[in-house]
Amino acid sequence: AGDGEYYAAFREVLVPVARRFDPDFVLVSAGFDAHRDDPLASIELSSAAFGHLTAALTDVADECAGGRILLLLEGGYELAALTASVDASGAVLRQPRPFDRSDGELTMYAQQSREALSSFWGKI
What we know:
Elements: H1 3-21, E1 26-30, H2 47-64, E2 69-73, H3 79-94, H4 104-121
Parallel strand pairs: 1-2
Helix pairs in contact: 1-2, 2-3
């Protein structure tokens, strides 16, 4: 399987299921050993594919989890492929993302947090 097959699987299966699940947090076991140059796998993903797949997951995180996403490095054993793949995913994560939300409940929690921290940090 290569980029096209993975894109289709994400588009047709993983993303719809993730949206239906409606996670509070997206945690990704980010294994890059699916790269076509990795010596331990027989999967044919390009470095760019990891960026595209990360973008799909950040969309789910933005839609369902308030943008909360964490990628934990797991595998990848060909160093040039690993570097390029991590960079492709990191580039997606470094893009500006929606942050300002006018959600009354979040505002209430933010205010409560500010009040709780004020004895330690003064007025914030």
